[in-house]
């Protein structure tokens, strides 16, 4: 399919002042060309958003490693039977003990904690993939917005060129006495108004490129795009299918649910008391002899059975299960909507193409009729306005198709250009 958005006639220069002003504005700050979208996305690994996502996974992995740690042993030194009354006034009858105490986790506390940490890493990776897909969607929309901003400038400049050509035709007819001077003033006023629209479109372009650079983590900014994105999308006969159970949002919610279950298990096992084994050696100064000592202690779970943490973990689990079920419903609805929107976007694009072709032909015939004196100026202006509106409709349809493709790619687990996101 041809790309009517990019098939507008080559632009002619506007005015010297506008060109110089735009050149000075572009040269006032260092900038660069944005690479093709796929390369730009791959180059954003050091963007602040991506770094934050990597840190979230690193945090979960650190917690998982910590969950594997065993309790540290305790070393104690104790002296008895000293600094008392006779015969314990000195150190002659002292008993000195060197002891090592080691807590031993029983009841599956450590294994459940490790399982919860591992599930947390899985959940963090799932959340990160979903967030990367959302970032790829946002980047595609920003990239398309920059391209659309360029196209809007082209559209506005084309309208200025065509209005200027109409103005020259009107001036010729005024000089020949076939049109009133008022008509020339009307056309000149319209040309000036269209030139103001060009300036507004350029200002919008600056904002669009600034947002793209900020999202990509580029401080120098972009001035243009290395490769257009809009022409990549062709009309398709069908879309899908997409398995809702394999979408990133659902997999993230499912991983969160599984991690919550593991945390409940860990909280319940945390109530099991730890067994503390003590081993040491005691020096008996009275007998001038050494003796081994050993002990075993276990706390009585009379007051603290970790019920508050268990209740909190169970509440988190119920919330995670509800989010999991809700996410699945939302994903199914999103898939149905995305498939329908892509079909509609293709139909809208085809209709916009036909509308533009009809409007261009109507303007051409109106121009011929006006120059031949067979139609009034108002018909020519109306035909040109319709053609300008048709170009805007084509551009809006292209933007809608870009957004529809980006939504579908997000659900399908890829970027808008088809690269898988991990």
From TrEMBL:
A GO term, aspect molecular function: efflux transmembrane transporter activity
**What sections of the sequence does the record tag as coiled-coil?**
146-204
Q: Which organism is it from?
A: Novosphingobium guangzhouense
Supply the InterPro entries for this chain: MdtP/NodT-like, OMP_efflux
Q: Which residues form the signal peptide?
A: 1-33
* UniProt name for this protein: Metal transporter
Q: Please name one Pfam family that this protein belongs to.
A: OEP
Entry superkingdom:
Bacteria
């Amino acid at each position: 399919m041809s790309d009517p958005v990019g098939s507008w006639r080559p632009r002619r220069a506007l005015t010297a002042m506008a060109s110089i002003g735009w050149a000075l504005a572009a040269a006032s700050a260092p900038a660069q060309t944005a690479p093709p979208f796929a390369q730009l996305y791959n180059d954003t690994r050091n963007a602040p958003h991506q770094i934050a996502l990597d840190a979230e996974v690193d945090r979960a992995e650190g917690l998982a490693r910590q969950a594997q740690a065993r309790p540290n042993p305790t070393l104690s030194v104790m002296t008895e039977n000293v600094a008392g009354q006779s015969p314990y006034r000195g150190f002659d009858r002292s008993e000195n003990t060197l002891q090592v105490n080691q807590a031993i986790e029983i009841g599956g506390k450590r294994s459940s904690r490790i399982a919860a940490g591992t599930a947390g890493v899985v959940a963090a990776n799932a959340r990160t993939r979903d967030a990367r897909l959302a970032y790829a969607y946002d980047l595609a929309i920003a990239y398309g917005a920059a391209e659309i901003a360029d196209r809007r400038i082209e559209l506005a400049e084309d309208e200025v060129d065509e209005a200027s050509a109409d103005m020259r035709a009107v001036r010729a007819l005024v000089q020949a006495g076939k049109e009133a001077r008022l008509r020339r003033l009307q056309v000149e006023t319209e040309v000036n108004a269209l030139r103001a629209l060009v300036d507004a479109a350029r200002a919008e372009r600056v904002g669009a490129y600034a947002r793209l650079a900020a999202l990509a983590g580029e401080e120098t900014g972009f001035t243009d795009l290395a490769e257009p994105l809009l022409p990549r999308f062709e009309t398709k006969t069908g879309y899908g299918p997409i398995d809702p159970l394999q979408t990133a949002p659902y997999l993230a919610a499912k991983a969160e649910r599984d991690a919550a279950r593991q945390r409940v298990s860990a909280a319940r096992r945390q109530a099991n008391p730890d067994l503390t084994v003590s081993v040491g050696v005691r020096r008996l100064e009275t007998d001038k002899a050494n003796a081994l000592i050993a002990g075993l202690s276990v706390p009585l779970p009379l007051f603290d059975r970790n019920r508050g943490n268990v209740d909190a973990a169970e509440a988190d689990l119920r919330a995670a299960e509800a989010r999991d079920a809700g996410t699945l419903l939302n994903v199914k609805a999103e898939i149905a909507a995305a498939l329908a929107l892509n079909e509609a976007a293709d139909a809208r694009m085809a209709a916009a193409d036909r509308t533009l072709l009809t409007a261009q032909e109507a303007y051409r015939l109106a121009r011929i009729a006006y120059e031949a004196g067979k139609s009034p100026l108002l018909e020519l202006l109306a035909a040109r306005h319709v053609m300008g509106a048709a170009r805007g409709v084509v551009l809006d349809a292209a933007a809608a198709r870009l957004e529809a493709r980006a939504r579908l790619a997000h659900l399908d687990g890829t970027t808008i250009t088809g690269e898988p996101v991990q």
